[in-house]
Here is the input.
Amino acid sequence: MSRSLFWLSDEAWAAIEPHLPKNQPGARRVDDRRVISGIIHMLKCGGRWADCPSEYGPSTTVYNRWNRWSRRGIWTRILAALTEQGWIAETGQIDSSYIKAHRSAGGAKGGPRANAIGISRGGRTTKIHALVDVLGRPLRLVLTPGNTSDVKGADLLIGETIGMKRVIADRGYDANRIRVALREQGTIPVIPGRRNRKRPIQYDERRYKDRWRVEAMFCRLKDFRRIATRYDKLARNFLSAVSLAAAVAFWL
Here is the structure.
């Protein structure tokens, strides 16, 4: 087998296997480990599903299992299960990143906004909002259209920060309601104020320097070419891709 192909290690497979569907039908069903290795390979290389190497089985089998399990929420549940076992709750960080939507990502039923595609200065984009732990490992990932503000994206993540001592975010999250929501649950906001604020905001400048970890997380995610550019029409499939890439890059 070619060295350029991706194969799940024994340790990674042992972590994933308990969270996969059991007793699936099929007389000559291709092994799950082989197919999932093929799916991850395609996320890494960014190629068309039809061009999936034959070592992983028929390309239609690889895509169909990817799509069907995405519809059932399997890939996002795998990430959730892995994060529950090892996340560190002391400090969380919130940030977002734009993803350019390829022209092949258009045309899905429900329209672009229903599938998390919006028009921003970068063109047609999707925004990934992420909550990471103190080591920069993603705990929660959500998608919105690219023209959604960071403050609105934070509303989708704040509920996941309960139990954390502090949350670090940049000036894009400087909103009174975010600070109030965090303090009400016993979390210290480490968020600098915008420069146009009349009253300066006090925050822990030393801890704020650790915010590079969430930026590094996005850089690492975008090493997967199907994350750096969105090719998926459906938001659920792209979120599945982001979740699986995050699991492979940080939790396996």
About this structure: The chain has two domains: 10-81, 88-251.
